[in-house]
Write a structure and sequence with these properties.
With 440 residues, this protein is of the alpha/beta class. Helices cover 30% and strands 22% of the residues. It binds (4S)-2,6-dioxohexahydropyrimidine-4-carboxylic acid.
């Protein structure tokens, strides 16, 4: 089907912008949603999707992924990652700058945009990475959702852990700053203290709650000092959630990953280094407090931090095993399964995984099923449960920390720009996404 044709989704349970559901039809034309109504059977169309029994949600916008291209394509590339997105109902992604070369210049950003235009089945945006010495690049780079600062858990030029440098970045310009908030000095010191242990569980002790809290406090302080738009990536601790609950300026947002909500340090016993990530998994108490913060709006949305490494790399003993786990294929069913258990509503999941992300990053025309919005949609099946299985995965790394979990809400059909990119288990690899725009 070409980008200019029309498509009718028939008799879906449609999530409306007001959070209510309508059983009805949606008409897509030229990449946009043109009509939503109980019955559009009279419209003349090129193609129809029968959605009887399925639920239609706005396509997921995953605002933190590491897709490894260029430079680390043995782990993942923009084609394989975007296939995983299409299968997971992720119709847009925002990707991080720790590729090779680092995405710290307009030229590196342009290169990624060009690669994605050729290879990505879904829509894409790329962060610009902060370094100590390239301030003008940070405010001039375009298009980008914002500036990524690794305050910790990084090495080389992307590590920006000196307060004087951080202050310069916060003081300069006004575009959104997204922080990986961990205190590098504390981590380095505790690494020495616990050196010699090969038990991956020590990772959560070394990079402890205090390390995350210290950095989040510093980022908040600088954000307030300069009234600078701040986003706290993958918030992981009860302490940070409580801090934000007490004091969250209107210009600050925060996200949490499904793994920080659903996995904790017990996972090391069953999946070992596959559970190793930065910031690390925490306790069951942290899981609970993060959930409540999300439900209360203290945390604004969800990101996967999809960070694939090969099984061979992960099989090295700690601390040589790399940190990170894949996520784009499992995030939506994980969260919808929680909704079906009554932990939250389906409408809340769609808000956290699409609407609120589009709002925070000012991505126009995305995150809702209404006339005029882009036709980025996912049809999910909330009636059946299936296990997450390694053999089904599209990510090049070929594993998931959630293997064996029995989930509902798997995507059945995913639509990007009005084109069916995934349909009952089959990918349409001819579809290409578009570069996301970010309003000022
Ligand atoms: O666990 C992680 N892995 N956290 C990060 O912030 C980076 C990521 C990676 O790129 O592997």
């Amino acid at each position: 089907m070409s980008i200019n044709s029309s498509l009718r989704i028939r008799q879906a349970q449609i999530l409306l912008p007001n959070g209510e559901f309508l059983v009805g039809d949606v008409l897509l034309q030229n990449g946009s949603i043109v009509q939503v109504a109980a019955d559009l059977s009279a419209a003349s169309i090129d193609k129809e999707v029968d959605a009887t029994g399925l639920t239609l949600l706005p396509g997921v916008i995953d605002p933190q992924v590491h897709f490894r291209e260029p430079g680390l394509e043995h782990k993942e590339d923009l084609f394989t990652a975007s296939c995983a997105c299409a299968k997971g109902g992720v119709t847009s992604f925002l990707e991080m700058p720790n590729t090779r070369p680092l995405t710290t210049t307009q030229a590196a950003l342009d290169d990624k945009l060009q690669r994605a235009a050729q290879k990505s089945l879904v829509n894409y945006g790329f962060f610009i990475g902060a370094t100590a010495d390239r301030l003008p690049d940070l405010i001039q780079a375009n298009p980008t959702p914002g500036i990524k600062i690794f305050m910790g858990s990084m090495h080389g030029a992307l590590l920006v852990d000196q307060e004087a440098v951080l202050e310069k970045i916060f003081a300069y310009g006004d575009r959104l700053i997204a922080v990986h908030a961990e205190d590098q000095e504390r981590i380095a010191q505790r690494r020495q203290e616990f050196a010699g242990s090969t038990d991956p569980a020590i990772h959560s002790t070394i990079q402890d709650n205090q390390a995350a809290l210290n950095a989040t406090k510093l980022a908040l302080r600088l954000s307030k000092q300069y009234q600078r738009r701040l986003h706290i990536l993958h918030m992981s601790t009860a302490e940070e959630a409580e801090l934000l609950r007490q004091d969250k300026p209107a210009w600050v947002t925060a996200e949490v990953t499904p793994q920080h909500l659903l996995l904790n340090t017990e996972a090391y016993q069953t999946i070992g280094t596959l559970a190793q990530m930065n910031p690390p998994l925490r306790s069951a108490h942290d899981n609970e407090v993060l959930w409540q913060a999300l439900l209360d709006g203290v945390i604004d949305f969800i990101a996967t931090d999809h960070a694939p490494h090969t099984l061979e790399e992960k099989a090295q003993p700690y601390p040589n095993s790399p940190s990170g786990m894949p996520g784009v294929e499992t995030s939506l069913p994980l969260m919808l399964t929680q909704a079906m258990r009554g932990r939250c509503t389906v409408a809340q999941v769609a808000n956290w995984m699409s609407t609120a992300v589009a709002q925070a990053y000012r991505i126009p025309n995305k995150g809702a099923i209404a006339p005029g919005y882009d036709a980025d949609l996912v049809l999910v099946d909330l009636n059946n449960y299936y296990p997450v299985q390694r053999a089904d995965l599209q990510t090049k790394c070929g594993w998931s920390p959630f293997e064996g979990w029995n989930l509902t809400g798997f995507p059945v059909v995913t639509i990007v720009g009005g084109q069916v990119v995934y349909d009952h288990g089959t990918l349409n690899t001819n579809v290409r996404g578009q570069a996301l725009r970010f309003d000022a």
